[in-house]
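Hi X.,

You mentioned you wanted examples for the new student's onboarding notes, showing what a folding record looks like when two proteins sit in one file. Here is a clean example. The first protein comes first, with its sequence line followed by its structure tokens.
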Amino acid sequence: MPRGSLGGWCGLALCGLMLALGTPAMAQAPGLGIGAELVDPHVFRVCADPNNLPFSNQAEQGFENKIAAVLAQSLGKRLGFTWQPQVFGFLQLTLFNYRCDVVMGITQGATMVGNTNAYYRSAYALIFRPHAGFDGIQSLEDPRLKGKEIGIIAGTPPATILAENDLLDHVHSYELSINTKFFAPAQDLVHDLEQGKIDVGILWGPIAGYFASRSHGALAIAPLLHESSDGPPMTFSIVMGVRQADDAWRRTLNAIIDKEQPEITRILESYGVPLLDPRNHVIYAGG
């Protein structure tokens, strides 16, 4: 899920994930320029979770790792990662403590960090076994979900909508706020889906698309594009987060994101991430 939304993280997630509480450990005056804003002006230093595929891991196999490598090369900097599990207090321990200069995968509008321009937009999605009757569903209000065993990550926006549509009697809930070093709720949900313990799952789109794209056709996804006017959002734009005072650095990142957007999009598609335009029209269906 996108980070920055559960209060902000999706944790996207997105989107259910607020990975940090508290205020910055240090403050700096704005307008000092990149040299004064960065931990090391020669290194593109990113704080990331060491065990959180498809986003990042310590072997640098996640799509955020790959995107970071593209940006570092474009900036002419060495790439460096500071590893920290993305649990509560993540930003306080990392970005705000000057252990890095950027955190990727933040939900646009998250107020605890400065936002770059968005580098992709995605949606929560259904994930299911093909030919199970879920193809083409775009809303959790679809009657085809009635009576089905549904897997959901607790505390995410889809859970609220399921409750409003009286679908909780058939919900299998998987814990949200966990340390990825020890738990993998999305992977557990997908395993239960493959074993037939649930009929369909609901995951943040990049996660659903990643598992589907690597299932050799055993799983499919359907992005949830239709949002009710009075319900929680299901689509989110994703940005990179910097310290609020780092204005020059944010402007530099915006220019590099714009320059490298075609390659960023190619990486996202290679991981099966469903992609939307600003009006929620599908650019790439994912999976």
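Then the second protein repeats the pattern, sequence line and then tokens:
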Amino acid sequence: MTRTPDRARRAVAGVVVAVLALLAVALRRARERARDVPLSPITAGWHVGPEFVERAGLATGDEPLGEIDDVAQFAGEAFDPDRLDPEIRRFYERTGEYGMRYRARWHRPFRTGAALASLLTSRIEQLNLPGPGDESWHRLESRFLDIAEPGAVAVGADPTEPAREDVRSWVRTDPKTGEAVFVALYATHHRDGEGFVNIAVPIPGGGVDTVLRPENLALGGEREGGTGIRLTTDPPGDPGLYLRTPAGAFAVPGGQRFEVWPAADGDDGRLRATHEMWLLGRTFLTVEYEIERA
């Protein structure tokens, strides 16, 4: 006579094996997805903070004016830099001349996890956003430093493959506390004539990296015919969200989207922006920015 407990144990074991097999396949695909993308080799220890670049010996001594010298480096099939609104172009090329403030909104069901994570990020001083419940406006101060980054090419690729170019750090701090909010290493890379924004965020033992495709964002009203900018991890190709770990780099089942456009009241040096992040198809964070030329 067949014993029911044995049959149940075999069924449970079968399910566990199937789940583990699916996870192994997913991890292999995530690693293969990241293999072809040039990612930064720079990692951090248990504290990042506003002096990370100097402490890590990465600074060359040059201080760029903005995120990129010329937005023409972003040119591609989806982005024509000549159509970009002049104020937005100026912001990207002379970012340090703008004041910024932001507010963050964490979405359910991620709020509990975000509250726990904020206890860690505030100590590390990286990705140091306010936790759930604080949707007030916070000011940011920006500082740019040119970076001497070891060559970052796709794993196993030859030197002719795409690499991170014109690397610079954008250190954003809270002027009230002096703490780092966001320490990121910005670069571009090119593939098949298309330019991508390639952002590395060093974390303990690895990094959270994002590759974004620039797109023209149509404007209406008095600015009809001009464009803002959208930066998105949407496929196809290199864009995506990647996690670098001691075990290697993996594509993450999530993404980001930035949109920047002029404020509604005209050419007064003011811009608006939003930053959305999602995981497994669910938006977990929205950050709004108000930007004003100093």
